[in-house]
Amino acid sequence: MRSHFLLLTILLISLISALALNEEESNNNGTKESLLENKAVQFVKIKDDLNRTIYLRGIPERIVSLAPSNTEMLFALGAGDKVVGVTSYCDYPPEAREKEIVGGFLDLNLEKIVSLNPDLVLAFGDLQLEYVNRLEELGFKVVVFNPKDLNGIYRNILTLGKILGREEKAVEIISEMKGEITKLRKKEIKERKVLVLLSWEPLYVVGKGTFLDNLLEELGIENLAEEKGYYVMSPEELISIDPPVILFLGGRETTESPLREKLTAFREGKVFYLDPDLTTRPGPRIVLGAKEIAKALDP
Amino acid sequence: MRRHLTPRLLFSLLCVFLAFLIPLSLYIGVVKIPLSSLFSSEIIIEMRAPRITMAFLVGSSLAVAGAVVQGVFRNPLAEPYLLGISSGAILGYSLSFFFREELAIPLAFLFSTFPISLIILASTSKEKTILLGISISFLASSMASLLMYLSGERLYKIFLWIMGCFHFSTWKQVLFFFPVCSSYFLLVSLFYRELNSLQFGDEYAEQTGVDPTKYRKVFLLSSSFLVSVSVVFSGVICFVGLVVPHLVRLLTGRGNYKYLIPNSILLGGILTLLADDLSRLVLAPREIPVGIVTSITGSPILIYLLWRESKWHF
Amino acid sequence: MALLNLMGVSVKYNSVEALKEVSLSLTQGEILGVIGPNGSGKSTLLKAIYKALRFEGEIKIRNRDLLEMSRREIAKHISVVPQEFHPEFPFSALELVLTGRTPHLSPLRPESEKDLRIAEESLEEMGAIHLKDRDLRKMSGGERQKVLIARALAQEGEILLMDEPTSHLDMRNSIETMEKIKEIVSRGKGAVVVMHDLNLASRYCDKLLLLKEGIIHSMGRPKKVITEENIEEVYRVRVKVFGDPPIVVPLGVIGDENQS
Prior knowledge:
The complex is a heterotrimer.
Chain A: H1 4-9, H2 11-20, E1 43-47, E2 53-57, E3 63-65, H3 68-76, E4 83-86, E5 100-101, H4 110-115, E6 120-124, H5 129-137, E7 142-145, H6 150-164, H7 167-186, E8 193-199, E9 203-206, H8 211-218, E10 222-223, E11 230-233, H9 235-241, E12 245-248, H10 259-262, H11 264-267, E13 271-273, H12 276-279, H13 286-297
Parallel strand pairs in A: 3-4, 3-6, 4-5, 6-7, 8-10, 8-12, 12-13
Antiparallel strand pairs in A: 1-2, 8-9, 9-11
Helix pairs in contact in A: 6-7, 7-13
Chain B: H1 7-27, H2 42-72, H3 85-96, H4 104-122, H5 126-150, H6 155-162, H7 171-190, H8 192-198, H9 202-207, H10 212-234, H11 240-252, H12 257-281, H13 290-312
Helix pairs in contact in B: 1-2, 1-12, 2-7, 2-10, 2-11, 2-12, 3-4, 3-5, 4-5, 4-10, 7-10, 11-12, 11-13, 12-13
Chain C: E1 4-13, E2 16-26, E3 31-35, H1 42-49, E4 56-61, E5 64-65, H2 71-77, E6 78-81, H3 93-99, H4 113-125, H5 141-155, E7 159-163, H6 171-186, E8 190-194, H7 198-204, E9 207-212, E10 215-220, H8 222-225, H9 228-235, E11 237-242, E12 247-253
Parallel strand pairs in C: 3-8, 3-9, 6-7, 7-8
Antiparallel strand pairs in C: 1-2, 1-4, 4-5, 9-10, 11-12
Helix pairs in contact in C: 3-4, 3-5, 4-5
């Protein structure tokens, strides 16, 4: 938990206790390091998605990933052997499943992460902030990825490539991804208006400004959702929009609701169930997700 | 007829129990630390030790605050979050996601202390205080619910915070919280006589030379402050404040605050620590939020206590 | 010197005058009985005396103005025995009597052997020492009343205010209690006792104050106050009064109005 408020009120006490606990801190926060030290050792300066500048000394050998998209990126860059900890949702590639599990997404186990003694933790999004802070307090290096669009994903892959000393591979992956997207854009897709849902009950919609929305945009497809972010839509709104195509990314959940009769998409069999692993993970396989979307819209 | 423990005996027993519980709690956890390096491992020192300390301190604070609030309002069902402290905190916490997330904790603290403090200071009578407090509580809850509905994917995070968690405890937190709760314990211990008189009603208090309005404000303000601070560190932990004082009264057969306070400190701390241990143990490596453990274990205890009370309270 | 002096005391509850221009004085060794029908202001009078409510007029304790005394001070001089008492939580009789010592104690001056002794002696005086560790909630009304009186004794106030101290007691206990009060008062205290039992009042009180709708109807020795006219006027009950001290025998109700 952020303790800014407490720091303001007990600054003195913090300083004293920090001094007292100083001997324990052999792992210092990288951001305090002077650039002039250790010219002989390779070090890397990167910026993460929280706009923080982070200095890493040498190539990390023990990496903990806190999201499936991060894990996939690591393996894609050929650094799978460096991964020592993943989440329970990290199931691709199959080798990832054999790694130590440190938690789910928001219920991570700090002790587990610490016990793996990582020299790099790859966090995700803005919901893991408390873990990020605590880990940094304990002296670990944390890099946070939070891509909002395709370019963000490319940037993440590049940054990770830089961290791992695999920049060439990163560039290779990115250009391959870009190529695929371009190919898909050129395809003759008949249906160009869709609505993307994450669940039927409630109607959880993928709105504007999300990376999925950006992906659709790249493919030349119009997202009929009007609001920003992920939000709940009412059935009436859905009926009034009446999208010609519905893409469902919520796994196996189906619906028996009376909506089925009212919506064009249902009547014309244009409700497509896509693999959430390919479409909701902002990592290298997003391209496969894009392919699935394109295929659904133009079989 | 019913055998009771003397308060001193209970206190000693609890101390002994705590002495065993501490190393056990340090040992419990996903990461198995060999006993030989139990006190030198970084995980133990930097993570588990502050965690069990906070669990104990928060638990004892809630228990004592609960005992005090029960006496001030003469209500066996009173508990420390009674005056809208938890609702206010949840409201503040949820609100932060619509502005700046870093403000989550400060906002939670703000919304849990200020409305309540104003009510306590402004109300002249017990009834007014309680009615206003409950109304604010409902108002805050409903606004918080609205915010949670609108919060989208943040909801899970808010939920986890509400359910209580000692996962992020640090020594800095202990350094801040310890003086706060020990000053409260000191205050309440110094004025236990006034509490004893207050629990028999405003008139009784007056008859024994205790100004009911003044002391009610003192006790409620300090309790609210302490509980708000604890919510900020650990989220909402139910049942401890309600059940522990009753357990102490049941075990010792007495409600005298002279003995109720020290025993509540120990029992509240111990039970919360146990709950935290359970939360780490039962579904390892996942953790159940502490508040859920206390609710699941606290409810049957409460039911039992109520059943027992009704049998011979005339 | 008078222990207690009231001059022109009035109390208003929501624009209803519960007490109007009441004056009285209490000296050492005196028991002043307050009698009157329900709602005549008896309890209000007691509450005003220990400053539990706002009043107009003057109240002096040993010539000190009540309004200038702190609550603690007042409690050191005035011991109150309430009529109603409902404990919510377990508490022993001895512990309750000890709360009577609160005005004499403070965080810097905690309980000592002396306080414990005073508490136990008070219980003994009331013949309730065998109840000392018993839970208040498990006592009969009468037993609780004795404990409450013991608490008032332990408080060591020289003015005793009692609100119907015998209401829960049977005949024997009532008489014992009044005898005890008489004995205690004779040691230099003064007592203002609200009584519902006119016969007990007439027997044990040195002076009586008959209240009607917040106003003093008559005040003086029992023989002077308890007369057939007075009772009929105030209680609206036909009675026969005879003897010295006067004994009251109710005969029947007068007229339409409801009286006791």
